[in-house]
Amino acid sequence: MQPLIINLTEKKVVIAGGGRIAARKARVLHGENALITFVAPEMSEEVIQLSEEKNYTLIYRKAIQADFYEAALVILATNNREANQALAKALPSHQFVCVVDEFEEGNVTFPATIRRGHLQVAVTSNGSSPKLTRKLKKELEAQFDSSWEPYTAFLKRCRELIKQLPLSFEEKSELLWELLEDPYRISEEEQKKKWNELYARKK
């Protein structure tokens, strides 16, 4: 399987299911501004609360194939193994589908993800060991602490500025590599000095 980072802003996501797992998948997408619809005969309090917070759509009945037309992402999270399997088989092969209780029946999995500002790191065992995935996520959370949030913002600003400088490609590349040295990540003072230095070169 090929990892991808997909922008789901304003994209239609349909979740078959209204229970704990369906809510958990929706929370993963909570900050993505996706247009989420839940389809299930019954909805948990957690799903209802999420829908009130984010204006998600709730459809109170069993999911049918037509519910997933034009969906950028389908999540099959009913509490019925046979229903998930039948829906997965009915959907076209080009559609992105996550089957929460049988990894191999879909073509999408949700990796464990950490975010630190503009940095996003994802890890998955592709269904072989969810516990390993959780273990690695904890290790990555410790490795990439909160200092990476302002640092990645600094890198973004500097990259945009460096692109405007009247320098050769090689010179710009050298500057970008220099910004990856540890002092710029851990010292706000070093970041300010470097920013001022780069800005002066623009004038």
Main traits of this protein?
single chain; 203 residues; alpha/beta; Rossmann fold; Double Stranded RNA Binding Domain; Helicase, Ruva Protein, domain 3; 3 domains; five-stranded parallel beta sheet; two-stranded antiparallel sheet; 8 helices; 7 strands; elongated
Describe the protein.
The structure is a single chain. With 203 residues, the protein is α/β, with parallel strands linked by helices. It folds into three domains: 1-110, Rossmann fold (3-Layer(aba) Sandwich); 111-145, Double Stranded RNA Binding Domain (2-Layer Sandwich), CATH 3.30.160; 148-202, SirC, precorrin-2 dehydrogenase, C-terminal helical domain-like (Helicase, Ruva Protein, domain 3), CATH 1.10.8. Helices cover 43% and strands 15% of the residues. It has helices at residues 20-28, 45-54, 81-90, 130-143, 148-162, 169-178, 182-186, 188-202, and strands spanning 12-16, 35-39, 57-59, 73-76, 97-99, 112-116, 119-123. The strands form two sheets. It has a five-stranded parallel beta sheet, with helices on both faces. Helix 2 (45-54) links the parallel strand 2 and strand 3 (57-59). Helix 5 (148-162) packs parallel to helix 8 (188-202). The mean pLDDT is 93.
